[in-house]
Design brief:
single chain, 133 residues, mainly alpha, flat
Length: 133
Amino acid sequence: MVEIFHTLVQLVTTVLTLMVEIGGLGLRHALLLAWVAWWLWGVNWARAWGVLAKGGWAVVVLLAVLAALAWASLAPSTCDCLGLFPIANFWWQLGAVSLVVLLALLCGWVQGVFGWAPAEIDLEPAAQANGHH
């Protein structure tokens, strides 16, 4: 009976440790999780793909390059992340920003595959009826 109690205590301790570690992981990557949640459930990709196809992609590319330029100016450094050779200042930031943009596009693809779409919110006020009250 005592062995079962000790096993139960170990199980509860292990589950609590797992929950704390998963919570810490979620907090460390909270911005990334918010980014994915926004692009999965906050953007209507059925409409966004049309805007991107009509030339919105150019705006996305320009914003990505500007974000990489700003990042490279604010925090200049080289990246030894691949281990083979160092990547110069601007180029690794551009690669990282490109990965974030590609993650957003991947979320759009996933939304289309699973048929998810956010609820339509009409921001225009309702038209007034011309009737007598």
